Amino acid sequence: MASLKRGGPLQGLRVVELTKIWAGPEAGKHLAFMGAEVIKIETNAALDFTRFDTLTGDINKARGFMSVNPQKLSAQIDIKSKAGVDLVLDLLSHSDMLIDNLRPGAMERLGLHWDAVRAVNPRIVQVTMGMYGNDGPLTHQTGYAPCFCAIGGLSAQVGYKDQPPTGINMRYGDSSYGTAAAYAGLVALLHSRRTGIGQFVDVSAVECMTTMIADTMMDFALNGTEQTCDGTRHAEMAPHGVYRCRGGDWISIAVSSDAGWAALADVMGQEGLAGDARFADLAARKANEDALDELVSDWASVRDCNGMVGVLQGRGVAAGKSCNSMDLVTDAQLWQRGFFPEVSQPDATIRPIVGPGAKISRPAQICDDAPWLGADTDYVLRDILGLSADARASLKESGITG
Amino acid sequence: MNALSSYRVLELAEGVGGEYCGKLLADFGAEVIKIERPGVGSPTRRLGPFAMKGESIEHSGLFGYLNTNKRSVALDLTTTAGRDALMQLFAAVDIVIDDHAPGWLANVGLDPLQIDDKWPSLVLCSITAYGQNPPAERKHAEDLTVFHSSGWGFHTPGVGFEDMPPLKGPGRFFSHYEAALEAAMVITGSLYDRESDGRGRFIDVSMHEVMVSRADYVVAQFVAGEMDVTDWRGGFDMHGPGGIFPCMDGFIYVFMATPDQWAAYRKMIGDPEWARDLPPDWLMKGLTPERIELTRHGLRTWLAGRNKVDAAHEAQELGITLVPVNTPVEVMASPQYRHRQYFVDVTHPVLGTLKYPSVPYRLSETPAAITAPAPLLGQDSARYLSSVAAGER
Q1: Beta-carbon neighbour count of residue B54 at 10 Å?
Q2: A282 lies within 8 A of chain B by CB
Q3: Nearest to residue A237, comparing CAs of A317, A313, A157?
Q4: Nearest to B29 by CA among B71, B1, B65, B66
Q5: Which residues of chain B have pLDDT under 50?
Q6: Which of these ranges, A54-58, A218-222, A298-302, A339-343, has the smallest mean pLDDT?
Q7: Nearest to B230 among A189, A236, A326 (CB)
Q8: Which residues of B touch A186 (CB under 8 A)?
Q9: Which of A83, A140, B214, B249 ranks highest by number of CB atoms within 10 Å?
Q10: Which of A171, A222, A227 minimises the CB distance to B217?
């Protein structure tokens, strides 16, 4: 039973992470946000490269690392040594879940494969993450988030009409994949809680991506239709686009009904537009979408973005600014809802972070920044594993722990 | 028995977000009772892709996909009898999923502010575009506008496309699927301590916040003042020679950022003289437009004589993260997807037998499974309305 007490639905749960970069840490972050005690095992000789920040030059103040590892503990244990792996196995016998996203085959080489893990704790859930999943002919191939999107079919769906695909922004993929892993892990954990039977959970990044275009795949299965990239267009809405405004901002507008079009046409105020037969219903608007988009573009180009959003929303039309990074950090609603909670570090540095995507009643307290390297090694060795001071000193001296 | 078989879910949702959330639970065995309007059913029944032409509420492949393993109960919530039946259902379920606009739940008798008093063991999840109390300028939303208010839209595609308009995400329901996944995760987490204390929770999922949180790696740096905030469309990106490139039969994606990957790239393209002249760590410390263009040119030349699968195979053997950009047919034909049986046959009385996408996780003891197709409208009404009225569980 974890001793960390932050409240929330997962208080009391202990999760061990052998994760790197973003997707694996994201899975653990979700659980930590719900109150779980999440312990990152870090090996000095093989640190997550997000610990190395060329700007801050401080492994405890590495920006990317801090972004996706808040609320966690860090234990510095050399998992390349047999003694270190034994310590991890001992820790796993006191834990509820293990998450890893190491290279394919690494867990087996370390002796942390499922048979070894369940031998020390039959109730545990082991979540293993790999680009292609843990099993299959292409499992050995590796990649980063944009690779997941390319393989999973997403990239081919994003781009300009009659141009090569561009894919979604290159940062997309890891966090969704981590979320799917957290979900599957929690399902397995509920089962373990009820039955005492742990299990192995094999999560595929590329399949996770494909679920994000599942209905596109259904279209192919049903009709043999292969969707391709088409700018911002949508089969069931028109206008459906992003238009440049006065001053260079962009506004997104999506019209899902004839009434919505009537409202937009009225706001645009051009004589005869509301009654123009070319745009009378969805089929007509789709058939004349180039002309429609040109009209909306011309109208938007000389107007203020937020002004248009206000008027269109007042008329029931879905419209919003296409937000840049400045807009995101100054978003009044996000601040008002507490989306950027403040957390602290051991040196009393306080900074805002990105909070959970969902608000829950009786939430866990979100208060701690990402851990400093090895900050909780003693907690793990002494309080969880019950090692004596001499034993801990000896492990440290031999370089097995930090 | 699957992992969630002992849980009963009432699905009031009528949109893609709530229905996908219900599906995520149903595919692990949860008993999901979907409430639909008599005669017309869920609005997703009228969204494509469709199996055939003609008016039918049973033709939608979208509805078919989103509602596997569920029960359909037709109930008119505009009548007193309908409301009464609904109240009885509230008391007979563990979880309620909704995705109507804020205020709708209170109007049907399930005020989120009162669940602690009236239904203390209920896990109630509401999925909305901007949360329970959106400001006036965020009352109306579609997937596109949420995607664009989250930062993802403005930064798609990203660097190199500053002169072109920002794009939409892949498919039609990208933000909806993401919010649904978040909702399913938090619902399941909330069931964990409910096992011991029997207390439910209210879960307020804002699609917007879910999408912003999906960019946590960069947005956290922006909000902490560690990265400059700008109105630059490339502001999310890492830079380098990687990207999407044409090959003989389509496109590949390649990512290169480390000295090891540079050494492997040189080997792959035959180590020409210009490549030998570049510093070994230039991808990390010496990016210039000239070097990037030289590298891209070398890659294009190498790719011109290769198809995507062979290119990926050769590059991966050398340690380069190069992969195919797959079209839908290529995803379905992938030997990996086939091996893992990601696409599964589902037989529906109207849609017929089709290959449905399944789930991206394999659980050794309780694998997700599609054991029943999406329900026909109201097919389970009699069973649930009578048994629930009789107080059965």
Answers
A1: 7
A2: no
A3: A317
A4: B1
A5: none
A6: A54-58
A7: A326
A8: 185, 188-189, 192
A9: B214
A10: A171
CB contact under 8 A, A223 and B49: yes
Give the pLDDT confidence score for residue A3 in this predicted structure: 78
Other beta carbons less than 10 A from residue B3's beta carbon:
27
For residue A250, give the H/E element and its range: strand A250-254
Pick A14-212+337-397's CATH classification: 3.40.50.10540, 3.30.1360.20, 1.20.1250.20, 1.10.340.30: 3.40.50.10540
Give the per-residue pLDDT at B1: 87
Dist. CA B331–CA B333, nearest whole Å: 5
Measured between CB atoms, does A122 come within 8 Å of chain B?
no
A133 touches chain B (CB under 8 A): yes
Confidence band of A346 (pLDDT split at 50, 70, 90):
confident
Work out the minimum CA distance from A273 to partner chain B, whole angstroms: 23
Strands (E) located in B318-379: 321-324, 343-348, 352-357, 361-363
Residues A354-369: tens digit of each pLDDT? 999 999 999 999 999 9
pLDDT at B87: 94
**Cα(A220)–Cα(A217) distance, rounded to whole angstroms?**
5
Q: Give this complex's ipTM.
A: 0.98
Q: How many CA atoms lie within 13 A of B206 on its CB side?
A: 25
Question: Fold for domain B243-333?
Answer: formyl-coa transferase, domain 3 (3.30.1540)
Write down the CATH number for the domain with range A240-328: 3.30.1540.10
Q: What's the CATH class of domain B8-214+341-389?
A: alpha beta
Measured between CA atoms, how close is A59 to chain B, in angstroms?
15
Count of CB pairs separated by less than 8 Å, A with B:
521
- CB–CB contact A142 B321 (8 Å): yes
Q: Each residue of A106-163: pLDDT tens digit?
A: 999 999 999 999 999 999 999 999 999 999 999 999 999 999 999 999 999 999 999 9
Q: Which residue of B has its CA nearest to A55?
A: B226
Hey, where are the domains in chain B?
8-214+341-389, 243-333
Q: Are B45 and B57 in contact (CB under 8 A)?
A: yes
* B8-214+341-389 against B243-333: fold identical: no
